[in-house]
Amino acid sequence: MSFIKFPQDFTWGVATSAYQIEGAWNEDGKGESIWDRFSRQKYAIRSGETGDVACDHYHRMEEDVALLKTLGVKSYRFSTAWTRILPEGTGEINPKGLDFYNRLVNALLTVGIEPVICLYHWDLPQAIQDRGGWNNRQTADWFAEYARVLFDHLGDRVKRWATFNEPWCTSFLGHGTGQFAPGICDFSEVYQSIHHQLLAHGKTVDVFRQNNYPGEIGIILNFEYATPASDSEADIAATKRYIDQYVSLFADPLFKSSYPQETMAFLGCMAPEIQSGDLEVISRPIDFLGINYYTSFVVAYDPNGGHFKFRTSPKTLPMWGHTEVNWGIYPMGLTETLITFQKNYGNPRMYVTENGCAAMDEPDEKGFVEDYQRINYIRAHLIAAQKAIQMGVNLQGYYYWSLLDNFEWAEGYRPRFGLCRVNYENGMRIPKKSFHWYQDVISN
Ligand code: GCO
User: C-alpha distances in angstroms, 179 versus 39, 165, 169, 183?
Assistant: First the structure.
């Protein structure tokens, strides 16, 4: 048997997000978020499910920390719900909301696990949405204020912060296609909301640095690797447009203090309004970049393919196939994505902050799942990550998505990404085969 080796201090972790696991959507003073509102809309979520209860993590937090301890991870990435801290988005702090995260952080530290907080995993306060949400420039300031509350209360113990998770999804799926909250279908809002999220990120980095909070701050972006369907110029150009809207549209302003000219020209009147000085704020140096990678696509030019004029199909390899959500499995796409940042963006310190597989889980009568598809998926992506390290990529850690099966947004509870099966009828967690396998990987 051959082993691949990771650096001794490589960070092994798992990730979750507030709305997907916490439940307790209106308890202890929590305010309404855009996902609380959106999930109640008819036809928004497959089979009409909501995150009202989810994995009930809010009430089972100690049990989940015990699972993390058994798993042996060094680090746990979770998100805080803005509406638990500031129910109306601004103004009065809700002490019970803060207390929950306080207890979570303390419980993690007690068992030697590093807490990593992501400040925004899509659950904007509804009160802020009612004031224009990410289309309103002021939301950037409100976000930085919310961040400050958390830095003030948890900053003595939490040493790694991410501002945003996947602003691409918030903008494209939340404001463009309307598949995600707040359910807006208006492409002209997509780019303005990207700009305002990036601005909020920059302003938050400023708050963090100016007040000398200890520790590190970064951002988490999602990427899909893509290759052209043919050698035709049109397919090659379409593939570049596809990659640009994931990579350069975000990474250029963050790392190069400019938006990609070609993309901006393509957007025409949909290009965002940018004020002088914005790009300077957006490009404040960060300590790390989080990369979320799941899948890759083959891209072809298509005159009817929306304003970017492309059509995609899942990219995979013979024998690999697709995950349960029909994402093509293409581990090399992870290596390629990491190398893009090494080559074009100065090889920043990176973490794979999400990578995971919705496998065709089939529990036995005790609820145990022998999820070899998930194990193979993770193994292949770890090999791809390790290959990138060998090529000089500054990759420092890997977080599997996710610790638990959870609320998969518009798809509801059907796709299961967890290392632990959740029985949604009674909340019971049952570690899957992949849990034990990952435990072995970490300890060896
Ligand atoms: C995302 C989010 C997660 C998802 C996971 C699986 O990448 O969409 O960060 O919340 O649940 O990626 O789709």
Answer: 11, 17, 10, 6
Please say whether the beta carbons of 71 and 78 come within 8 A: no
Are residues 201 and 315 in contact, defined by beta-carbon separation less than 8 angstroms? no
Full-model pTM: 0.98
Sign of CA dihedral 333, 334, 339, 342: positive
User: In this structure, what token pair is assigned to residue 180?
Assistant: 């995600």
Q: Which atom of ligand 1 is nearest to the CA of 165?
A: 9
Cis ω for the linkage preceding 260 (within 30 of 0): no
Site residues for ligand 1, CB cut-off 6 Å:
17, 20, 165-166, 169, 222, 292, 354, 401, 408, 417
Residue 57 burial (C-beta neighbours within 10 Å; 0-12, 13-18, 19+): buried
Dist. CA 250 → ligand 1 center (Å): 18
Averaged over 215-223, what is the pLDDT? Answer: 98
Ligand 1 pocket test: which of 354, 404, 417 has the largest number of ligand atoms within 8 Å of its C-beta? Answer: 354
Confidence of residue 307 (pLDDT cuts 50, 70, 90): confident
Question: Are 159 and 216 within 8 A, CB to CB?
Answer: yes
The β-bridge partners of 404 are 420
Residue 347 contacts residue 313 (beta carbons within 8 Å): no
Q: Measuring CA to CA, which residue among 312, 332, 301 is closest to residue 231? A: 301
Residue from 21, 166, 168 whose mutation best tests the ligand 1 pocket (most atoms within 8 A of CB)? 166
Atom of ligand 1 nearest to the CA of 220: 9
Question: Which atom of ligand 1 lies closest to the CA of 401?
Answer: 5
d(Cα 195, Cα 180) in Å, to the nearest integer?
A: 18
Query: Rounded to the nearest whole angstrom, what is the distance from the C-alpha of residue 46 to the centroid of ligand 1?
Result: 16
Q: Which residues contact 362 (CB under 8 A, 6 or more apart)?
A: 369
422: which strand partners?
429
Q: Which two tokens mark 426?
A: 């009674």
Ligand 1 atom closest to the Cα of residue 356 is 6
User: For residue 213, what pLDDT band results from cuts at 50, 70 and 90?
Assistant: very high
Catalytic residues: 166, 354
Task: Kindly state the average pLDDT of the residues 41-66.
Answer: 97
Q: Over pLDDT 70: what percentage of the chain?
A: 100
**295, 409, 414, 416, best to mutate for ligand 1 pocket (most atoms within 8 Å of CB):** 409
| Tokens at 256, concatenated | 């190069």
Residue bearing the CA closest to ligand 1, atom 4 = 408
Q: How far is CA 440 from CA 132, 208, 259, 359, 395, in A?
A: 48, 37, 43, 20, 21
pLDDT tens digit string along 32-50?
A: 999 999 999 999 999 899 9
